[in-house]
Input
Amino acid sequence: MTTEMRVLRPSEWNEWFEALGLAFGGGAMPAAKRDLYREVTHVDRSLAVWDGTEPVGSASSFPFSITVPGGGLVRAAGVTMVGVASTHRRRGILTSMMRRQLDDVRAWGEPVAALYASEPGIYGRFGYDTASHLIRAEIDTDRVGLTLPEGTDAVRIRRVRDAGAALAAFEEVYAAQVPARPGMIARLPHWDRLGAVDPVEDRAGASELLSVVAERDGRVTGCVRYRTRADWTDSVPQGRVEVRDLFAHDPASYAALLRHLWGIDLTSTVQMENRPVDDPWQLLVSDIRRCRVRVVDSLHVRLVDVGAALAARSYATPVDVVLEVSDPFCPWNTGRWRLSGDTKGAACAPTRDAADLSLSVRELAAAYLGGTRLGTLAAAGRVRELREGALADADAAFTSGAAPWGPHMF
Output
């Protein structure tokens, strides 16, 4: 087998994207959605592996900015569209693409790479680890009530039927959320439209995507997108509300949107698919056991430049620690790094000083957004303390006030 890897040419996108679809199980994508994917693809950041005239491997990335603890943004490659043809597996194609991609990301000056893994076990060998989790829930709204905070009754709930107006309202609310939570991604052009695209083929018998906003004093303070799915069992209505997006500026607006979802006629279940692990609804429900909550991995992160990445975020408590880092796949990160910082900022540079903690780049990735404790990683044998007290100090410093969450799928 002779293969060639090179940057994708614009004229090759259709064939490349079709091969990617086959790698993910096949099935035609609705034309409206496919057209938007073509618009958001950065061809100059896309790799293609060819076996003669056949595309057998793909990998791309987006030039995102991701919120880190402290509310700042770090440049990050959003790794996506990674696939290898079933006929060409276990021949080193994926490794060669990851090697080239991380070299490129480093050359572009992006300290972090991030992805959503179709199979989480694949990317650990390339230095990625789970940096955030999400929860899914099936809430029995016939039996689970809500305790509503003061001010909920003052919030107006309104359906927005005009697609352009709905999109503008959602993007305004979303943009205000970005600095508040690690893992959130600032939108690039066209991504607002991709999140709202609603082809009939994707509904699987459910309703169109509905857009509802919360308002106070004439200003939009929250929004939710959802579908409803009818279900009549023994002539009893047991429909489901399928929530796609839910954001709000304040507790009353958030609760008012929840109350709307709970009260939709002919439904008995609210399905949450992608919510942060500290989502407040869990403290408003009357019976959490009837909500069938499940925690799964979400955003996976890789530190491409350890020094720049650690210096880009702030730290919950003062920290001055020397990290002995191993990174076989990106050896430029291997070595000792002195990290010093606090809530105002940080610096991280190579040093020859004695190490305080020993860990790999994967542990730093897991702890980077504050979602996984260094102490927990140490308890699993993945972080080793070399100076007494260093682990407790670093563990406290790496935490984040809000749990990291990546609702912007890509």
Q: What stands out?
A: The radius of gyration is 23 Å. Residues 93-107 form the longest helix (15 residues). The mean pLDDT is 96. The longest strand covers residues 54-67.
